[in-house]
Amino acid sequence: MTGRIRRDPRAERSRCLVPGGERPRLARDGNVAGMVVSRRPREATVRRIETPAFWVAAVVEAVDGGLDRWGRQLVGAARMLAGTDGGVVLIGLGDVAGNAAGEAGADRVLTVGGTDDPEAVPGVLMDLLGPFAPRHVLFAESRVGGDFARRVAARSGWPIQPGVEALNVRQGIRPCRGGRYERVAAVARVVTLPCDRVAPYAGEAREGRMLEAGPPPASPSARPVGGVVLGPVARAPAGAVPLSEAPFVVSAGQGVTDFETFHALARALGATEGASRVVCDAGLMPRAAQVGASGTVLDARCYLAFGIAGAPQHLQGLGKVEHVVAVNTDLHAAIIARAGLSIVADAQAVMPALLALLREEGA
């Protein structure tokens, strides 16, 4: 024993902490009497542009009123091509909120409703693009976006670069000859981009000004006799979407014992059910529900994991998932490190609590 008084660092910090302020401020002498740091709310700055030198358009498939990872990448690519002098107009195939579009980098926003008629939408897109005379028009190289891009290019006569793998203001690079070669050329008027080829916009928020929506596509009854008539588009029932295509997956791991509540929660959330390999091996969930390298690799927007530790092969199945929410009692579990939001608690306590909240909201 030295007789030296031991000091508690936590208590010392609390004694020296100045009240208020956005960041911790310490008075080392401990004299904080009368010292208060005022909290000044930060004003969000928004970049506005009225008359850009030119326009670049991004045609985005909206998902539940928002932009998914692919959509934000398209707008980010348009923002890169527009530079400081150009403007970006986002044309949403579905409803898109102006603030979400502005954060993604769009200066103007137009929406097109009723995109279930592929014959009518390209004409509406041409009408919307006309006043802007865009230097470039970007589409996703998806089943819907790729089809519309080729229809617009064929109708307008604009040159098209499909499936561009690398893009900058000077050139676009895309594979050719079965992927054995690359073709480098100046950026065409119409460009389609696969997912994860361009980073989303991360700069100052843009205005995202909502403009008057375009007219809806012509109804199938107005099409000539002998044409293909499409029926109404119906949403798949909750949980009926295949695991590999589901936008929202709720998954159970070894930490889940109350599967009745788990199934009820998945139905209430409208999510597709998944599971870890341990759960499927035990016969508690069907093998088709297994998530991971030896099961299904997901392409979901959100993955909610209950009681899953996060084995390497399981995490390999989450490579394309945009948002991961983990519920686990182990703070140091691998799934916690992968998650964007974590709840360190028992799944058996969290599941009924979420279910009760959903029932209160009438879900």
UniProtKB/TrEMBL annotation:
A single BP term in Gene Ontology: fatty acid beta-oxidation using acyl-CoA dehydrogenase
Region of interest called Disordered, as start-end residue ranges on this chain: 1-23
Keyword ATP-binding: no
Record field: compositional bias (Basic and acidic residues): 1-15
Molecular-function GO terms, alphabetical: electron transfer activity; flavin adenine dinucleotide binding
Domain of life, per lineage: Bacteria
Keyword Transport: yes
A Pfam family that the UniProt record links to this protein: ETF
Keywords attached to this entry: Electron transport, Transport
Domain named Electron transfer flavoprotein alpha/beta-subunit N-terminal: residues: 56-229
SMART domains documented for this protein: ETF
Entry-linked PANTHER family: ELECTRON TRANSFER FLAVOPROTEIN ALPHA (PTHR43153), ELECTRON TRANSFER FLAVOPROTEIN SUBUNIT ALPHA, MITOCHONDRIAL (PTHR43153:SF1)
Annotated family: Belongs to the ETF alpha-subunit/FixB family.
Protein's name in the database: Electron transfer flavoprotein subunit alpha/FixB family protein
Organism of provenance: Gluconacetobacter dulcium
